[in-house]
Write a structure and sequence with these properties.
Elements (H helix, E strand, L loop, with lengths): L1 H21 L1 H22 L4 H21 L4 H18 L1 H4 L2 H18 L1 H6 L5 H26 L14 H17 L8 H29 L14 H24 L1
Helix pairs in contact: 2-3, 2-6, 3-4, 3-6, 4-6, 6-11, 8-9, 8-10, 8-11, 9-10, 10-11
């Protein structure tokens, strides 16, 4: 399992880095692909009808395009439009949709996956340092995941939230925060952030990354699956790999924009 994870990472990370550095529509295409697969995994796990799955993916894919073209200001109007489209669909497709749960699951998938992850596009589009910021938040997030895994495996004795994820420990959580913080300080080799902000971001990324992991664990436990798919050997599905990123990227973007750049 560990060997598979390493091999996939060695292939995936250089490709992802290339897309980030290139930017533009190439990076947009990659993000749309990740979101599309993520939505498909989510709706399949939730056992949605094919029609609802296709509608959810179609509308969800519109959000990254809006973020790319309109920036942060697209979030409110586009998000509102998507929600209303699903609510109105309840009236016209009531017999097919059965009850309001269907609509809210579809809306939830779009909010959770498409809306949150689309923030990576406006992070990447920050002038001059966008690509560096994007690489940094992914580096710190995934290093935190790695720290949580190895420290939890080695020293994890005290369960954190056993009713949600019985294998995750308090030691692993602290390991994530510690290693994410270390990664943020390492990132000062290529991104010169003030020391105080570097420390705060390390703690926030480590914490929020684990919250993202716990949130997905809660979803998987609720629907009774181990992984959302097997598309990434050793890692599981797209959502299994990007669960922590969904929570860290928006936080990182707003922190950097309003507390450092502004």
């Amino acid at each position: 399992m560990l060997l598979k994870r390493i091999i996939v990472a060695l292939i995936f990370i250089p490709i992802l880095t290339f897309f980030i550095l290139w930017g533009g529509f190439l990076f947009l295409g990659l993000i749309c692909t990740i979101i599309g697969f993520g939505l498909f995994e989510f709706y399949r796990g939730m056992k949605r009808e094919k029609l609802l799955t296709n509608i959810g993916i179609l509308l969800g894919m519109g959000i990254p395009f809006s973020f790319y073209l309109m920036g942060e200001k697209a979030a409110s109007p586009i998000l509102t439009l998507v929600i209303f489209l699903f609510l109105f669909g309840q009236f016209f497709e009531f017999k097919r949709w059965r009850n309001s749960t269907d609509a809210f699951i579809n809306i939830g998938g779009i909010l959770y996956i498409s809306f949150l992850f689309s923030h990576i596009l406006i992070l990447r589009n920050i002038p001059r340092i966008g690509s560096t910021l994007t690489i940094t938040v992914l580096f710190a997030t995934w290093m935190g995941d790695t720290g949580a895994y190895f420290i939890g495996e080695k020293w994890g004795k005290h369960k954190l939230l056993p009713e949600i994820s019985p294998h995750k420990s308090k030691e692993g959580f602290l390991g994530a925060v510690l290693v994410s913080s270390l990664a943020m300080f390492i990132s000062r080799l290529w991104l010169c952030l003030p020391l105080i902000h570097t420390a705060i971001l390390g703690i926030l990324i480590g914490t929020m990354g684990q919250m993202g992991d716990f949130f997905e664990s809660m979803l998987k436990r609720e629907i009774g699956i181990k992984d959302f798919s097997k598309i990434l050997p050793g890692h599981g599905g797209i959502l299994d790999r990007f669960d922590s990123v969904l929570f860290t990227v928006p936080l990182f973007y707003y922190y950097v924009k309003y507390l450092i750049i502004s």
